[in-house]
Amino acid sequence: MAKRTPKPWYRRGRGWFVTIQGKQIQLTDGDRNAANEALEALKRLLATGGTKQTGKTGAEAVAAYLDAIDHRVKPQTMVGYKSSLSWFVKQFGTVPVGELEPVAIEKAVTVHPDWSDSHRANLLWLIQSCVQWAGRPDFKLHRPQKESRSEEVVIPEEIYKRILRETTGDFQQFIRVIWATGARPSEL
Length: 188
Hints:
Elements: E1 9-11, E2 15-20, E3 23-26, H1 35-47, H2 58-69, H3 75-92, H4 102-110, H5 117-133, H6 157-166, H7 169-181
Helix pairs in contact: 2-3
């Protein structure tokens, strides 16, 4: 069976993409009329064996990533992303994306005893997302389990009983399940 050559396709408002080995890779930003640019980007991509921008340094990849997602992310979220990724740039900003080692990043994150596991997990997710966007779809980081807020968010039993007295039907059953399982309402 003949192998098909990947072809660029347009995602409204986001730009031109190509799918290679089940991974969607962005070729250009936004402009629907950039079909020729997308074809050129695809040629460069195929010339590098299906990877994108791996010659960039970590700092260059972060700058391009933040620029690419700026229109999709709330301003407050973008501030957090910039702050978190500034640590990555300080540690690995001069390393080419193609040479980044997951183990080195995971180890560097563990040396901060003042960081919670939830913070480490979020930071590693963000770094992984950035590096994958920059052309390393195989780049995976092992993240610690996020911490539970446990008893600090559990309502006292007397308030739970009062809620049961004040509610009926399905909502009351919903409250019972939340209390019994400890699940978040969105999880149910």
